[in-house]
Amino acid sequence: MKIIVVCPDCKSRLEILARAVGDVIKCGLCDRAITLSISEKLCSDSEVDCCPVCQGTEFYSRKDFDPKVGLTVIIIGALISGVFYWFRLDLVAYSVLGIAALLDLLVYRQLRDLSVCYRCHSEFRGNYRRTAPLFDLHTADELELEWARRLGKQ
Description:
Blueprint: E1 2-6, E2 13-17, E3 24-26, E4 33-35, H1 40-43, E5 59-63, H2 67-86, H3 90-110, E6 113-117, E7 123-125, H4 137-151
Antiparallel strand pairs: 1-2, 1-7, 3-4, 5-6, 6-7
Helix pairs in contact: 2-3
């Protein structure tokens, strides 16, 4: 299983393999030592049961899709559409917007899901059985605040 650990200090993203990492990793940007506790289920890529960074058991599922890419596709489509709209080619302008949105949707639907820890935002990619529910804002608000307090940032 591939895990993306987010450094609590500098927010850099550290990619690790669950079966090939030790008990401590060091952030390459700020030199913070991050203690890990990787469970056997994570090592065997069978289930995301416990976060190795914060030991939380609350996760949510989302698409493995960078929102910046989707936004970029839509903005480029809107700019091209604006040029056609300027020349009073309304049907072409709206068609360009529709094609950009359809392209974005098609790419989004082809992508796999990943699990994310509510507290520390670690991401889990692999062939494990997906059990995490979709994102819940109320849960995120409570658990992120708890993690910030534990780190001494609140």
